[in-house]
Amino acid sequence: MKLNNIYKKHIEPHSHPTFLSNFILGSQDGLVNVLGILLGLSAATTDIRLIIVGSLAALAAESISMGAVAYTSTLARHKHYLKEVEREKREMKEMPKAERKEVEVVLSEWGYAGRKLKSMTEGICSNPKAMLEFMMAFELKLSPVSKSEARYSFTTVLLSTIFGSSLPLIPFLVSGNILYDVIFSVILSGFVLFIIGYYEAKVTVGSLWRSGLQMLAIGLSAGIVGYLIGHFLGATPV
Where in the chain are the domains? Predict the structure, then answer.
């Protein structure tokens, strides 16, 4: 009972790696794509309605597409993990000596040797569940993925893509002056991209400013490309 209480007191909060990757994937992709489309359309036409409709269509398509990709890719990882679990179980049953040797090899790479190595190997191999999880994690380098995680990925990527895609569109829904809309959209998008990069470095590792500026540069580069395409290939007035 005391051990449980001590354990609970010392549980440290950790960021959810899946949420972080999904949030960055969706928000960055949505923001960069819609910003590029907005700038391209703004350079090609002065029809504010066409710009908004085109951007909203891109927002809807991008959000659903990104959510679906996140769901199917996570589900594929789930199925792959289950297949490898069954294969590993079969090998543990049919080739116990070879599997034991693989455990020993991993432990020796960690620096264990002699009696310590034999003792650790014996301890792991005497427990089939521990051995299976050890092999999955340290031989195959795979982490368990559940079906619920696929649904979680779909939801977070979908919502974060909608969030990111909506941001560069806000000035166009408020003002109606295309020049000002473009300027404010670029400023707002650049600020948010910097914050996303800054947040990524804060919860992982790396320079906060470098990560923020890198995300900013990537996003604005895509926006500039969209603008140049719209400028040079856009509709010419008759």
Answer: 17-230
